[in-house]
Design brief:
Blueprint (H helix, E strand, L loop, with lengths): L9 E4 L2 E4 L1 H11 L2 H9 L3 H38 L9 H22 L14 H15 L5 H28 L11 H24 L11
Antiparallel strand pairs: 1-2
């Protein structure tokens, strides 16, 4: 039997309704019902909801950063070892590895602040590593032992930096001029062959780094 609330059982005190004992019991029962919690959750302020979303985003960003760091740190060390694979770089390899890490940090900061894709990961690209490694080894060989080691390493770093800046400017101008569509005129076998050689170069560099044996040519693999 449902209780009936008549006007005689309700008193107004200070503009607020007050029920008698039966009415107060009913209100307490309604406040403890499952539907009451759902109604209270719908009454959350936008500020509390925004704070919850902000904290959730911070946690996700921190966890993603930790995972990406765990994956990319060994990759950066391997890239540095492959780029500076010339024997003359062995003494300065720790410092050169730090430079590779620093360049990746700068790359990521630029992407995060200027790119329309802030979630992209900035690192040394494996597609251009072939040219970087070839240039570094060629410059060291061309200068020879007659030039002090510090000057040779400085020359290599300056050349790599200049070439990287020029390539970056070329890519920016290509994007601004809407010329990226001309890439489709390149034959597909050419692009496929280049990407295949990138994979071969990475495998060769990884095997050489793991075994400590320089795999300069196929004839020397036996």
């Amino acid at each position: 039997m449902k209780p009936s609330f008549s006007p005689t059982r309700i008193k107004i005190n200070g503009g607020l309704p007050h029920f008698d004992d039966d009415g107060n019991v009913m209100l307490r029962a309604l406040s403890l019902s499952p539907g009451a919690s759902r109604r209270d959750s719908r009454l959350e302020t936008p500020m509390s909801s925004g704070l919850h979303l902000f904290l959730q985003g911070v946690v996700h960003a921190v966890l993603s950063g930790v995972v990406v760091s765990i994956v990319l740190c060994p990759v950066m060390i391997g890239f540095a070892s492959i780029i500076f694979s010339h024997p003359e770089f062995s003494e300065a390899l720790p410092m050169l590895t730090k430079l590779v890490f620093a360049s990746s940090v700068v790359h990521q900061l630029v992407i995060t602040s200027l790119s329309p894709l802030p979630f992209a990961i900035g690192q040394v690209q494996d597609t251009g590593m072939i040219f970087l490694a070839s240039m570094a080894s060629s410059i060291m060989t061309e200068l020879g032992p007659a030039v002090p080691l510090e000057e040779r390493i400085a020359t290599v770093l300056v050349h790599l930096s200049i070439c990287t800046v020029l390539v970056g400017l070329g890519l920016i101008l290509t994007g601004k001029a809407r010329l990226a569509s001309f890439v489709q005129y390149l034959p597909t076998p050419v692009i496929g062959g280049y990407l295949a050689y990138v994979g071969f170069f990475m495998v060769k560099g990884g095997v050489s780094l793991t075994t400590g044996v320089g795999l300069v040519s196929v004839q020397g693999w036996g």
